[in-house]
Amino acid sequence: MPAKKKTWYALLGLLSWQPLSGYDVKKMVEIALSYFWSESYGQLYPTLNRLVEEGLATRRDTSTGNRRRHEYRITRKGRAAFESWLREPAEMPAIRNELQLKFFLTSRMDSSESLRVLEEYRAQQSAHLEVLEDSERIMENSAKTGVFPPEIDGAIGLQGNDRETEAHQSLMFLFTIRHGLLRTRAAIAWCDETIAQLRRTTRSQTSRSKKGGER
Amino acid sequence: MPAKKKTWYALLGLLSWQPLSGYDVKKMVEIALSYFWSESYGQLYPTLNRLVEEGLATRRDTSTGNRRRHEYRITRKGRAAFESWLREPAEMPAIRNELQLKFFLTSRMDSSESLRVLEEYRAQQSAHLEVLEDSERIMENSAKTGVFPPEIDGAIGLQGNDRETEAHQSLMFLFTIRHGLLRTRAAIAWCDETIAQLRRTTRSQTSRSKKGGER
DNA sequence: TCAGACATGTAAGTCGTTACATGATTCA
DNA sequence: TGAATCATGTAACGACTTACATGTCTGA
Fold first, then answer.
1. Which candidate in A183, A201, A206 is best for mutational testing of the B interface (most B CBs within 10 A)?
2. Per the CB 3.0–4.6 Å rule, which of A52, A172, B13, B131 could disulfide with B107?
């Protein structure tokens, strides 16, 4: 079976915090989990209803006037399923890195091609790093004060939240950001080291061009 | 459109080196690209035949006696398609890390749960690191001597290969290993930093247990 | 009044894995 | 002789994204 039901458990995990609508879930994923997770509506709504069919959640209509809203609440069975999944060993993240592939596939081309791919990778990672560093600054403050920044609070704020809980939540959020930060910095360091070494070996061999055809 | 035709281009890229059979491709991916790529037979064989239908490759029967073998050769059109893809900006690797998800979803449980997930992640990454370090040692030697280790040579050796080309190929291989190495070390460093900080904050707050229900 | 957020859902299509089905050859 | 490797493929299933379809409410 392929990657079994990750969406199911992601949803159950969020519902284990509090009852949510599909729209709420989407927002939460986008704001709080976006560094390591994503969900699309096409996956979200059908899965929520499957959860209900399987008795892992219940659905309640919380529409006000003409504004539709369906709130999902986790059941005891759902909570048990979630906790059992949590204890299972997770598989290694799937290994399909398009940029690494491109880089490797330039092996038998001129080094300038490899360098071009590498520079692109570096630029992409640097841009990502900036985003992460901004988030880090914001959440470091939040972890200290125990007060969420408003955007975050709207998405992951809890009913009946106390300072201590929010501070801990901010800290966990900060940790996930730091994970991305360290990995991204490692990727950039790799680019720099590789670019330097590629330039060095290319210089020392004069031109290694193949058949001198195109360009 | 979802992740468009990565398998197509991975195949074209490998065929741009030399003609290959489906089986050859599978071996190459497993041995040389396994740190950042994978292909299954269920994807491979149909895609190779699609490539022929689209005029991006040709198929030749190279069976010997009763041993079937179909060799695929890239066409000019296929080469053009590959090169055009190579110049397109690659998308960021998909962001769906199950272990990060599990970690974050323990936010509102006892810290011991977060720590358990973290230790598991660390163990997984450490095991991966060992594999990478072994590969690094092997390929460092290969990049110096310009001679592939036999397993690798069987999979990615070229007809008419010269020392210089093989040394360069080994170097490129080494680079992809170092990418994994640096990223994996970063992940381990993150685990250590996070475990330490989580232990520290937990100690200073005495027990933060929720409702003291289960276990 | 109109943009943006709130809100739910489906249809079509791609991607990808696993399991199955089949059979030959090589070498210990 | 029997395990490993060579070799090609399909069927079923599930995951996931994108685009579409539809409509409300709030506040500048």
1. A183
2. A172
